[in-house]
Specification:
Order of helices and strands: HHHHHH
Structural class: mainly alpha
Number of helices: 6
Helix content: over 70%
Distance between the termini: 73 Å
CATH architecture of the domain at 44-138: Up-down Bundle
Largest sheet: none
Length: about 150
Amino acid sequence: MKKHFIACITLLFSTLALSAADKAKHEVQPSETCDLARSPLMRCDIYIDYERSDKKLNQSYRTLMKKLPTADAGSLRRKQREWVEFRDKTCLDLQEKAACDNALCDGVEHDQCILELTNIRTKELNLFLKDPRLGVRSGYGFDTKYPPR
């Protein structure tokens, strides 16, 4: 009876271990999906959040572009390119000011800045979608005050 009990317990634990290993094999871990070469990020910590935000930004941008006359679409395209340059420079400057001297904080300020500016720009584009005149009047501009005070 005791041998039977030990055999059952052993079987139960080995089944649980196999089940957990199988589950882990099929789950997508953020580090497996993080492709820093295809993003402006320095670290993988917030990659999934950035991906979601970037997808929303691109969706808003494409929707707005489809609604605009050719001349306005050209203005938006130019302004969006300027915004990417602004975002990248602003976030690099912020990272330098953070003066991080270890691997734990290296890139954290930069990546948080990238994420926040992406979310801010998405909100701006969505405002232009709601009120196209606002976009035209502002030249599809963006807020250059970062970090917000």
